[in-house]
Design brief:
Blueprint lengths: L14 E4 L15 E4 H5 L3 E6 L6 H13 L1 H6 L4 E6 L3 H10 L7 E5 L4 H5 L3 E2 L2 E2 L2 E6 L2 E7 L11 H5 L3
Length: 166
């Protein structure tokens, strides 16, 4: 498969792993990872999928996640059902990243794209990490898919850039 673009159907068989939010932001409280069937879930929702090179990395932590936290209500007002961050980190690291950012519920899900399995299928990896990209899926159809190739930039994948395309 090649890179996704607007008008494409979201591919079948895409799964991620995550730890469902428990309402607790204590980093020492751990759950068990579960599978998330993205292909099935995305067929019935409007979703913003954001991939980042790594949890807790400078641009991701200082710019990317805060941009989405600050604009949650704007996404909801544009009909977005779910915002999801993925990275190659395991589900426990992704869960801790969500907790470290004060996310106690499913307003933003933090999931593992283990071994960059999905990102590799669309060619958006850099070594053993995902590239920085955003994909908007509206009931199974891709309506936006862009990369940020400039180091430190979230122009295309940060909340403001994605909101401008909704």
């Amino acid at each position: 498969m090649s890179a996704l673009k607007a008008g494409d159907s979201f591919p079948e068989g895409v799964t991620f792993t995550y730890i469902a939010p428990s309402g607790d932001t204590d980093l020492t409280v751990c759950g068990l990872p579960i599978q998330y069937d993205a292909s099935k879930e995305f067929a019935n929702k409007k979703v913003v999928l954001v991939a980042v090179p790594g949890a807790f990395t400078p641009t991701c932590q200082q710019q990317h996640v805060p941009s989405y936290l600050a604009k949650l209500e704007e996404f909801k007002s544009k009909g977005v059902d779910q915002i999801m961050f993925i990275a190659s980190n395991d589900a426990w690291v992704m869960a801790a990243w969500g907790k470290a950012n004060g996310v106690k519920d499913e307003s933003i899900l933090f999931m593992s794209d283990a071994d960059c399995k999905f990102s590799k299928t669309i060619g958006w990896t850099q070594g053993d990490r995902t590239k920085r990209y955003a994909i908007v899926i509206d009931h199974g159809k891709v309506t936006y898919a862009e990369l940020d190739e400039v180091p430190g930039s979230i122009a295309n994948t940060g909340a403001e850039g994605v909101l401008a395309k909704l």
